[in-house]
UniProtKB/TrEMBL annotation:
GO molecular function: 6-phosphogluconolactonase activity
Naturally occurring in which organism (per UniProt): Banduia mediterranea
Protein name: 6-phosphogluconolactonase
Matching CDD domains: 6PGL
Pathway(s) the chain acts in: Carbohydrate degradation; pentose phosphate pathway; D-ribulose 5-phosphate from D-glucose 6-phosphate (oxidative stage): step 2/3
């Protein structure tokens, strides 16, 4: 088990989004007060969009915040499937637009060709991350560490911060933080919405191969505290 797993539960996803955003905002501002900067890494998808909408309304010293990505599809920044588009539209608006955004996607023709540049950009950040906001798929993947992906074993063992991934089923090449990159953090936050995903989460807590459910690598590590937010 992780050194610390704390679970927080709310009746609705909307309640979770508001409470989670307040928790993250407080932690980021504490980091800024202590170190004059804070570093947040975020995932894409519908669930974090509601958190972003709530988070951007908090009185953070946004110009001292750096926002990075947990993973990204190798598509143009204006593509409907782009995580960076979601982050720009839901988080980096209003006062929050003063934050510095460091996207994973670069000008390389594919994710594999862009990996070295992405690694250098991540290595230059003021790590460790203060908060990494994670999601989980119903197949037990987190970030873009997918069961069945040919890159999974490297993603779980590499000392690099990121790697290029081709998902076995989902569209688009991805860039993802490795497990090493995920664990370079002061706090991991896992957002779980709905009964189906909670069942996957409970299954992942049970014994079984990490390769079958890569989220287990996050649940079983003993390096970084993990907060799990359920609705």
């Amino acid at each position: 088990m992780a050194s610390t797993i704390r679970e927080f539960r709310h009746d609705t996803a909307a309640q979770t989004a508001v409470a989670l955003a307040a928790s993250v905002a407080a932690r980021l501002q504490q980091a800024i007060t202590a170190r004059d900067t804070a570093l947040l890494a975020v995932s894409g998808g519908r669930s974090p969009a509601a958190v972003f909408d709530a988070l951007r309304g908090h009185a953070i010293e946004w110009d001292k915040l750096v926002v990075a990505q947990v993973d990204e599809r190798w598509v143009s920044p204006d593509h409907a499937d782009s995580n960076s588009r979601l982050i720009r539209e839901h988080l980096l608006t209003g006062p929050a637009a003063a934050a510095r955004f460091v996207p994973m996607k670069n000008e390389a023709p594919d994710a594999y060709a862009g990996q070295a540049e992405c690694e250098a950009a991540l290595a230059a950040l003021p790590r460790p991350f203060d908060v990494i906001l994670l999601g989980m798929g119903e197949d037990g993947h987190t970030a873009s560490l997918f069961p069945g992906a040919s890159e999974l074993s490297v993603g779980l063992s590499s000392e690099d911060l990121c790697l290029a991934v081709t998902p076995p089923a989902a569209p688009h090449q991805r860039m993802s933080l490795t497990l090493n990159g995920l664990l370079d953090s002061r706090l991991l936050v896992l957002q779980i919405g709905g009964a189906a995903k909670e069942a996957v989460y409970r299954s992942a807590l049970a014994p079984g191969p990490i390769e079958d459910m890569p989220i287990r690598a996050v649940l079983r590590q003993n390096k970084v505290p993990l907060d799990v937010w359920l609705s």
